[in-house]
Amino acid sequence: MFLIRQLLPGILVALLVSGVFTIVGRLWKANSWTDAIAVGIGYAVGHAVTAGWPAFPPIEATQWLPYFGIAGTLLAVIDTLLRPPGVMRAVVWFLGCVGILSLLLASKFQYGWSLFAGVLWIAGLATAMLVLTSFLDRVARRDASISLPLILTIVAGGTGLALMLSGSILLGQLALVLAGAFGAIVIVGMLLPNVINGRAIAPVSATLLCGLWLSGYFFSELPPVSGFLLLVSPVPALMLVLFDESGNPRRGLLLRAILVAVPVALAVFLAFEASPTPY
């Protein structure tokens, strides 16, 4: 009960803030970029309620997360409004990923990595973030339904459980806050069906999810296999979004939810198995 009282305020605030922006986007028919604001600002406000607003510059790595949410939102909105060429988009976002990862993992350069190893880590992780963002972007452009927010809600919720089991209640809370922000888009999308693709949700979603996974791996005890499963868990469901031509929206949503829930559940189970046994 105490844990629930800890969790609820941040989740509910993120749900409310994200829901307001999503409703505005649906009514204004501008949700191609207001969905990004819903996620980024909803998470940032929920983070502040859960853990307080961090000073700038943050002292701890995970305190960068709300700033990353805001930065990802700004990049997403600018990208959606200006519509730059594809190559320019990729270059700008790759450099953005490098900057984000360099800030998040700065302590590894100080106390763990050599310069060469650090550059390899940052380059590889930035490439993975770029691939994930591109994949999410393509899905958002292909399917204007609630499929992508639903998939991201399940992934973020499973991330929260896995992080809690891996020794970080705070990171788990923050992941559930993000799930609340995604969940608001799902709820509003069911009540006010989408009419414009929400492609801007891709950059901010990839930023926050990767930030949580990497924080869990480098600064907590998230098992590598759990992190990998969470990373790839959306892939089967998103592939179904890209290639499913069945024309049955409800069945499609159910199947996508099951496809993403299975690897997420396995990631949570493996995190539970790896968690310290209390004595």
What can be said about this structure in brief?
By secondary structure, this protein is mostly helical. It contains 12 helices and no strands.
Keywords:
mainly alpha, 12 helices, 279 residues
Percentage of β-strand residues? under 5%
Tell me, what's the shape? Answer: globular
Q: Report the biggest beta sheet as strand number plus sense, adding barrel if it closes.
A: none
Arithmetic mean of pLDDT: 85
Cα gyration radius (Å): 18 Å
The total domain count is: 1
Task: Report the end-to-end length measured between terminal Cα atoms.
Answer: 22 Å
Number of E-state strands? 0
Percent helix, as a range, is over 70%
Low-pLDDT segments, ≥5 res: none
Q: Which structural class fits the helix and strand makeup?
A: mainly alpha
Q: Count up the helices.
A: 12
Order of helices and strands: HHHHHHHHHHHH
Outline the structure in words.
The chain has 279 residues and is mainly α. The protein has one domain. Helices cover 81% and strands 0% of the residues. It contains twelve helices and no strands. Helix 7 packs antiparallel against helix 8, helix 7 (147-165) runs parallel beside helix 9 and helix 7 (147-165) packs parallel to helix 12 (249-274). The longest helix has 28 residues, at 115-142. The radius of gyration is 18 Å and the shape is globular.
